[in-house]
Specification:
It is built from 10 helices and 21 strands. It is α+β, with helices and mostly antiparallel strands. It folds into 3 domains: 90 residues, no CATH class; 65 residues, ATP-grasp fold, A domain (Dna Ligase, domain 1, 2-Layer Sandwich); 239 residues, ATP-grasp fold, B domain (D-amino Acid Aminotransferase, Chain A, domain 1). Helix 1 crosses helix 9 and helix 4 crosses helix 7. It starts with 16 loop residues before the first helix and ends with a strand. InterPro entries: ATP-grasp (IPR011761), ATP-grasp_PylC-type (IPR003806). This is ATP-grasp domain-containing protein. It comes from Catenulispora yoronensis. Keywords: ATP-binding, Nucleotide-binding.
């Protein structure tokens, strides 16, 4: 988390907790969080006005409307938010049914940023570094020279579809001309982006596009496609917060500057609220890869750092972006984030979830997991973890789907291009997997 831009100006800094909460309470009476688990809302409990969590069923992209009759009255001071409101109409229908004002960004601005093709124009406008790339229209899939010849020159490429999904199945690493041709066949009829692969450190930076400025927040090392955990090269496996000292000189600041520049362009185009940017570092600077114009899973970690630093958590800043004309003045002090991490538990097969670990705080013992009193993430002991199920018993899942999230203090992997999980990280994944079962 940072409270200053790369140039040293605090103009893109975090919102102080006191003035942020005062502004929220002036505009909002109730806050509702609608998601598969409360991992983002929970760190804000006791801070934001009258927090209520409601479960968003797994894979649901619609929400049952109210029966015939007058629509419920809408109360502007009752505000709802959700993880990815652009996925189907479920969140919007939920808000209407509950009489809530949904804090969700403009769909056109969201689509433009999320689109892997138009995001290239966004990065160009923001004047941030990006890897060399080529856009491949549908009618040029079988024409030469190909992106493999122009960009690859024997080196790997990353090929992306226009729309990716939350588990990275719209991104492929291709390492040969034959693999490139197979990718074009599989995604025939689609516009694609081929990017020169940078063998570098995967990072993500979180931010929030407010009504008058972009707030630059936490930076994390992404655990992506970790061997033995997933079979998808680009799948999200977890994150661990990092500070400037964890990265080569200048890289942390490069991430901050990219977030500020891209956020300001998105704001100018009508986007509001939380977002994240995926980057890769070659050891000298960070190159922007894609934008996630929504909450990212890493916000669960970022908010733990924000609360510990005495600044408004991202969910609060996100809400303020929709209910105020200007954010409170930023705090000038910088904060070093605590070392906290999270790991994703993926479904190993297709099937119905028949057993899972209940939400809560756990300690590992010789007999398995024992529930203990819940404490803030940054205060957990080495043998403790917060566990958040993202699917419930009876949900049908597919191989690779995210079914649970494990959060711990400290780092669970080395900060490296190809990270290796620590024994502690592996033990937590094994412990949760032992209590997770699937049926046909």
């Amino acid at each position: 988390m940072t409270n200053s831009s790369a140039t040293g100006s605090p103009s893109h800094g975090a919102v102080p907790l006191g003035s942020g909460l005062a502004a929220l309470r002036e505009a909002v009476d109730e806050v509702w969080w609608y998601d598969r688990s409360d991992f983002i809302g929970a760190p804000c409990a006791g801070l934001l006005p009258s927090m209520t969590f409601e479960y968003r069923p797994y894979r649901e992209d619609s929400y049952e409307e109210m029966p015939s009759g007058p629509a419920p009255q809408s109360y502007p001071r009752r505000v709802g938010a959700t993880f990815a409101p652009e996925h189907g109409d479920g969140a919007h229908a939920w808000a209407r049914q509950r009489g809530l004002r949904l804090a969700a960004p403009d769909l056109k601005a969201t689509d433009r940023a999320a689109d892997k093709i138009t995001a290239v124009q966004l990065f160009a406008t923001a004047q941030v570094p990006t890897p060399e790339h080529s856009i491949i229209p549908p009618d040029r899939h079988d024409r030469t020279p190909s992106a493999w010849e122009a960009l690859g020159a024997g080196a790997p490429l990353v090929v992306q579809r226009r729309a990716n999904n939350l588990v990275g199945r719209g991104t492929r690493l291709v390492e040969s001309a034959d693999a490139y041709d197979a990718c074009l066949r599989d995604w025939s009829g689609e516009t694609l982006k081929a990017t020169r692969y940078i063998h570098g450190l995967a990072l993500t930076v979180s931010g929030c596009a407010g009504p008058d400025r972009t707030v630059v927040s936490g930076i994390s090392h992404q655990l992506v496609g970790v061997p033995d955990l997933v079979d998808s090269w680009g799948a999200h496996c977890g994150n661990q917060l990092v500070g400037p000292d964890h990265l080569p000189p200048g890289v942390y600041e490069s991430c901050q500057d990219t977030c500020r520049r891209v956020g300001d362009v998105m704001r100018a185009e009508g986007f509001r609220g939380a977002f994240g940017i995926d980057l890769v570092s070659d050891g000298h600077q960070a190159f922007a890869i894609e934008v996630n114009p929504r909450f990212q899973t890493v916000v669960g970690l970022v908010q733990a750092a924000e609360v510990a630093a005495g600044v408004l958590p991202t969910l609060g800043t996100h809400l303020l972006s929709f209910v105020t004309d200007a954010l409170p003045e930023p705090t000038p002090a910088a904060a070093v984030p605590p070392a906290v991490s999270q790991m994703v538990v993926h479904a190993p097969q297709n099937g119905v979830l028949t057993r899972t670990v209940a939400e809560g705080c756990y300690r590992q013992t010789g007999c398995g997991l024992r529930a203990v009193e819940r404490r803030p993430l940054a205060e957990l002991g080495d043998d403790e973890a917060l566990i958040w199920p993202h699917a419930r018993v009876g949900d049908r899942v597919e191989r690779g789907d995210e079914v649970a999230l494990i959060q711990v203090s400290g780092h669970v992997a080395d900060i490296a291009i190809t990270p290796t999980l620590s024994e502690r990280g592996r033990s937590w994944l094994d412990a949760v997997a032992a209590q997770t079962e699937f049926g046909p």
